[in-house]
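User: Show me a protein chain along with its predicted structure.
Assistant: Here is one chain, sequence first, then structure tokens.
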Amino acid sequence: MKKILSKCASSLSNALERSARERARNELLRLDPRLVEDAGLSRELLHEGIGSWPWRLKDEAIVLQEAREARYAAKAEKRAMRELYAMSDKELADLSISRGEIKQVVRFGREGIDVANTEDQRQAA
């Protein structure tokens, strides 16, 4: 009896999940294609039906890797700002940076400085 109830509960749960996915799919198909893409979903996979769940454009591992890279970049930016703010005004002047420019220089670089080369030099050091 317990097995039968367990199978019934499992079947009901699966049916409700399929129903919810179908409703979500229908709502997503009604949206503007750009909104669907901005949400990271594939319209083509949506057209294929609930069997193509989760309808994502990118593999989850890629999304997680991009998030890790973004966190690493943010930490590196903060570290660079801390290092520059710790320098004296004379040291900053030697680098042709004023204290008020530190945030902009770290985020966007300086005109005439090749960012790719400086990244390679940092990694080599």
